[in-house]
């Protein structure tokens, strides 16, 4: 099988949307895609929508208003997100900051993470007890990384990703970002690459496997909060953000 070489990969949102729709035709009825466009004024943001469901709703004033609200938050906080909006619409908003343009594989992981939120049953979980929503999104993104880049290179990329997910407070400017401390689930999944051919899973089995990891290995809230508190103590508030770029995942 031909896998992508990370150095040769260039993230292109439109092609990625087409690929996602091809792998998961159910997306056509479930959610659409938005690109938040950076600009000076955040009051009237510019955005671009993609996908069959957006084509259906793009002339609808209420839908445009809902998306606009989400895009304002995204531009203000510099993140990407998946949402089930109170309007009843579901969508992914991707934000590509100018400084990230070289980081194509990071954009792919971010989009796969947001797809995981929308496609995996527990994707919007994050119950009072455990981080199953973020774990479902990350597990899906990990499996897609192995499928995109192959079991050898993909695994190395996941080891780097798990480091970020274990020590998030050192890398992010967000406060109390303990919901993204899914590292122990990633470590388990990376370990299991020795006995499971994740890179060969069908699209539907990929969803099922991500759900399995979220259900079984998501950290509890108590674990994540205490890990956050322990790590956060190591970092001077003034220094947060100096250790690496915020990856923009949410
Ligand atoms: Zn997330």
Describe the structure.
The protein has ten helices and four strands; from the N terminus they run ααββααββαααααα. A hairpin with a 5-residue loop joins strand 3 and strand 4. The C terminus is likely disordered. The radius of gyration is 18 Å and the shape is globular. The chain is 50% helix and 8% strand. It is α+β, with helices and mostly antiparallel strands and 250 residues long. The chain has a four-stranded mixed β-sheet with strand order 2-1-4-3, with helices on both faces. It folds into two domains: 93 residues, no CATH class; 122 residues, no CATH class. The structure holds zinc ion. The site of zinc ion has 5 residues, from helix 5 and helix 6.
Give a short synopsis of this structure.
By secondary structure, the chain is of the alpha+beta class.
Q: Which characteristics define this entry?
A:
250 residues; alpha+beta; 2 domains; 4-stranded mixed β-sheet; 10 helices; 8% strand; globular; disordered C terminus; binds zinc ion
The total number of structural domains is 2
Radius of gyration: 18 Å
- Order of strands across the main sheet: 2-1-4-3
Small molecules bound in the structure, each named once: zinc ion
Order of H and E elements: HHEEHHEEHHHHHH
Mean pLDDT across all amino acids? 87
Strand percentage, roughly? 5-15%
Distance between the termini: 31 Å
> How much helicity do the residues have?
40-55%
Number of strands: 4
Task: Tell me the quaternary state.
Answer: single chain
Shape: globular
Number of helices: 10
> What are the low-pLDDT stretches, counting only 5+ consecutive residues below 50?
240-249
How is the main sheet built?
4 strands, mixed
Q: Output the structural class.
A: alpha+beta
């Amino acid at each position: 099988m031909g896998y992508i070489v990370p150095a040769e990969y260039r993230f292109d949102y439109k092609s990625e949307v087409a690929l996602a729709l091809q792998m998961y035709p159910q997306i056509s009825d479930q959610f659409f895609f938005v690109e938040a466009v950076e600009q000076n004024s955040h009051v009237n943001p510019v955005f671009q929508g993609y996908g069959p469901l957006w084509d259906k709703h793009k002339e609808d004033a209420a839908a445009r208003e809902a998306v606009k609200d989400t895009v304002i938050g995204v531009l203000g906080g510099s993140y990407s997100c998946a949402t089930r909006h109170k309007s009843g619409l579901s969508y992914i908003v991707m934000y590509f900051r100018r400084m990230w343009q070289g980081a194509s594989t990071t954009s792919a992981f971010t989009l796969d993470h947001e797809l995981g939120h929308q496609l995996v049953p527990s994707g919007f979980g994050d119950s009072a007890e455990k981080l199953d929503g973020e774990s479902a999104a990350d597990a899906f993104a990990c499996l897609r990384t192995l499928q995109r880049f192959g079991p050898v290179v993909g695994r190395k990329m996941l080891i780097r990703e798990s480091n970020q997910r274990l020590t998030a407070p050192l890398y992010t400017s967000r406060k109390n970002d303990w919901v993204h401390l899914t590292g122990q689930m990633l470590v388990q999944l990376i370990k299991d690459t020795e006995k499971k051919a994740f890179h060969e899973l069908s699209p539907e089995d990929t969803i099922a496997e991500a759900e399995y990891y979220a259900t079984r290995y998501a950290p509890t809230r108590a674990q994540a909060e205490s890990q956050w508190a322990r790590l956060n103590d190591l970092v001077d508030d003034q220094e947060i953000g100096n250790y690496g770029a915020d990856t923009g995942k949410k």
